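Second opinion, please. Please look over this fold, written as tokens:

===
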Amino acid sequence: MTFISHLRSRTVTLWVLLVALILSGCGALIREMPGGAPTQEASGGAPTQEASMFRANPARTGVFPSDGPTTLSELVWTFQTDDGVYSSPAVADGVVYVGSDDGRLYALDAETGQEKWRFKTDGQVFSSPAVAGGMVYVGSLDNWLYALDAETGQEKWSFKTDGAVVSSPAIADGVVYVGSGDGRLYALDARTGQEKWRFKTDGAIVSPPAVTDGVVYVGSDDGRLYALDARTGQEKWRFKTDGAIFSSPAVAGGMVYVGSLDNWLYALDAETGQEKWRFKTDSHVGSSPAVAGGMVYVGSLDYWLYALDAETGQEKWSFQTDGAVVSSPAVAGGMIYIGSFDGRLYALDARTGEEKWSFKTDGGVYSSPAVAGGVVYFSSTDGYLYAVR
């Protein structure tokens, strides 16, 4: 049975929409033109430690350099968009960037939540933005990847694929890597948008690619995880699971960790693709794993967050929420932050799994939190972006 026929939670609406939209498309091209003029400028203090892309870094480990709050002291600010928010925020140079189902990418002052600018696409923005070199990169369900000036929101270039861009871009060594619903992984020059290479899989690519040590790792709806040469796109190895891979792989300590909709989390040798261990959950693993301190943390649609030994896969602890966990855990200063479709953001002790605090929203927390300057930024299907500490 397919992922959607198995699913029995409120996430079904999202995934039906995703699967319906990622299979449509037109032709690939680049355009260089101005667009998305800023609507408002704002100034404010900048957090001193920042995250610049989904899962904090190109290796997608989910480890943030900032310490996170161990107790919940205040709701710093909220910002309302015009629709639900599934995109995960990125924080850089005192600005929070996040997409929305309303088709826009927003840039907000990280300290005050005041809007600096917004950019309109022609589709919903599920993709999480990446920030590097004064540019912001984000995909849209309109099939385009956009590159914008991080300060003004002005469009620098855009690249059209043959399918919806749900995948969140990774940036490494001046190259943007992003997957598309057309089944291809694209490598583009970060400055110009010029295509360097493309690699075709046998299914839509929702999985955000991971890049480290000259290798790109990406999952596909065809159930395979691929390892490619980052410079040429040549395949190094592939690994087959029994379900679609929506999870982003995380690469650490010579291992690649990735979830599959076959309910398993896999640990593979990063060099060869050889399986080291696997861990079974009771439902689909769409959450992207985090790796820190010899542990792997991952959520499942069975409502649980699992903490496993990174070397053996042995379960160390688990934490049950009241909803599906599609959100990916963020690790910061000995804490784990994770969202659930029960509407809460949870803060847990990374070593023991003890709940330290939680924060309730009026929607499901599908997106993955980002931590910068001691503040946790996350979004909800209620249409709001939240900043708490």
